[in-house]
Write a structure and sequence with these properties.
This protein has helices at residues 2-5, 38-55, 78-87, 105-119, 146-161, 191-200, 220-242, 262-272, 274-282, 292-298, 306-314, 336-375, and strands spanning 25-30, 59-62, 92-99, 123-128, 184-187, 203-206, 250-258, 301-304, 324-328. By secondary structure, the protein is α/β, with parallel strands linked by helices. An eight-stranded parallel beta barrel has the order 1-2-3-4-5-6-7-9, surrounded by eight helices. The longest helix has 40 residues, at 336-375.
Length: 376
Amino acid sequence: MAEALSPFGGTHLPLGSTTIGDRLRIGFITHLDNSEDPRFVYRDTIRLVQELEQLGYDSAWIATRHFHSGWAALPSPYGFLGALAASTSTIGLGTAVLPIILDDPVRAAEEVSAIDHLSGGRLLLGLGKGVPSDSYHVFHTWTNDRDTSFEHQIDRLHWALGGNVVDGGTAAIWPENRSLEGRLFHGSSNIDTIRFAGRTGDGFILERFGNGPERHPDARAGFQRRQAESVREYRRVFAETWGATRTPYVVTSRTAFPGSTTERALELVGERTVRWNALAGAIGRVDLSLSVPDQLLSDNVAWGSPEALAADLLADPTIALTDELVLGIHPALLDREETIAKARVLLDQVVPLVEEGWRSQRAAALADIEEKVRVG
């Protein structure tokens, strides 16, 4: 039933059986960081997602981080996703990302399979290795070899979602959910992990900002080019592995802060990112001696009037290669009413301009990859 109801298709479906790539899907992301009170932020975010659904967003994505990292309030998404599944009806529900290397993949499969059935096939499961921490050893599944552990966990998750019989036992994993296998996304900047996503037949989700030396205003364009090359490599490996039997799916996350004018947008986003930049500066991720605009550019934040914001997004070569663009106002700190107001401007005024440019750029961007596969 979930497969029949799902509006997303899936990477396991034949190319002609899915609408992936026919239009640019639009999501919105929240980090659940607008309150220190978990009771408030959980209920407030449910209302936020309900309002995003009413606005017409294709998907809502929630950050999942352990230890309250970056003030993100959701260490485990399962119960919260169940609440969202029961309180919404059409919007896709995404994780950005679930640190699967710290979970039992069979238990995770049971959780997400049940949630996906509850939602009617709306789950979009972003999977990753977690924001780096010196405390992950508290989890019994933790190993220092994050890359190998991630691949093992992904393989085991697929095995469990298939409803397979337990080795040495008689029980089968239940409920199986082969449709959900087509809505798994690997989040990583590691090129070997990205190639693994292509070989596995899963989707690929890109982080919104760079790391290390990429976190500098002068490196922003280079970071975006590096991400575009990562997507091209993912699509190349995917096509060489699966041909037309599966469909690649790329999700890109970007901060986009709109304003009535570019000057007004900069004034407000600068004001509302002070807390975040102070934290980032304390751990060496943002140079606080830079101007406010350069601090924002170091974090790959885009701002401006709808026209300027759309032009900034379209200058990023990753966008033409993207199937789903997930926008958000993080790291700016806004309450729910302010967030919805920005989300409305993004969807009504910025997205149409981005979609127009996306359509004009996409064919050439994909043709270049197809040519590499053909000759390669």
